[in-house]
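Summary of Year 1 activities. Much of the first year was spent building the evaluation harness for sequence design. The harness presents a backbone, in tokenized form, and records the residue chosen at every position. We chose the following record to illustrate the format because it has been used consistently in internal testing since the harness was completed.
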């Protein structure tokens, strides 16, 4: 936030330099966590390895209900990596003197674009260009001229939904904490930290589950579309 003191802002100034510095800090924290979790694998995990195995298991369980276990494991690297990046970015802003990278639209928009292009790429790769975009037209051919542009707009709106939801919520949380620290710096922040931590976790979960939902819609077989009756065939059969 412009004008709000941050340690990195005092060094790099408020603007692009501060945002990049916070992104590098988040990347460093994630690398440190990954190194700590993998430096000595054990059959009975403890410490950071235990936490990360629980996290990865939770991500698979999340995706299993949406897209099936096989595909949930296939897309685990993407969803887990995005999830830990968003969570660390969200939480770091709760610490006074730091700012959440995800409170900047220049961070959340590329994340949304990456998800958008990836799930469409996977859908085209799995179903082929013609078959994939045929789903946009819906099961009723007469309504295809209406449904196709609606589906295109719907998919493009996902970019705005993903990026602005995360950006808006985290920006609002940062402003909320900033106001509290100015008004009652020694009392109010304690319960507020719990609320903001829950919000950081919730926004991470929403982003991750939406990745699985979008991937499911792109690569999963739409049985209803495949089994939808063809009016022309039904008419010929009746004749």
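For this record, the design step produced the sequence shown next.
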């Amino acid at each position: 936030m412009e004008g709000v003191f941050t340690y990195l802002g005092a060094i790099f100034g408020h603007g692009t330099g501060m945002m990049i510095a916070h992104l590098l800090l988040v990347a460093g924290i994630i690398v440190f966590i990954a190194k700590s979790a993998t430096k000595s694998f054990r059959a009975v995990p403890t410490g950071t390895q235990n936490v990360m195995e629980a996290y990865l298991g939770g991500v698979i369980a999340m995706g299993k209900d949406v897209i099936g276990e096989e595909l949930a494991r296939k897309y685990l690297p993407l969803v887990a990596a995005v999830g830990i990046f968003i969570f660390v970015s969200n939480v770091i802003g709760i610490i006074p003197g730091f700012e959440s990278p995800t409170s900047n639209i220049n961070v959340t928009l590329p994340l949304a674009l990456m998800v958008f292009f990836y799930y469409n790429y996977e859908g085209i790769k799995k179903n082929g260009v013609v078959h994939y975009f045929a789903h946009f037209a819906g099961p009723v051919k007469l309504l295809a001229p209406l449904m196709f542009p609606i589906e295109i707009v719907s998919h493009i709106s996902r970019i705005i939904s993903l990026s602005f939801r995360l950006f808006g919520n985290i920006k609002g949380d940062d402003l909320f904490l900033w106001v509290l620290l100015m008004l009652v710096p020694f009392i109010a922040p304690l319960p507020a930290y719990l609320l903001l931590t829950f919000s950081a976790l919730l926004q991470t979960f929403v982003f991750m589950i939406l990745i699985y939902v979008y991937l499911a819609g792109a690569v999963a077989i739409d049985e209803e579309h495949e089994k939808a009756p063809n009016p022309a065939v039904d008419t010929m059969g009746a004749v």
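Residues 114 and 159 are 9 Å apart (CA to CA). Quantitative recovery figures across the full test set are reported in Table 2.
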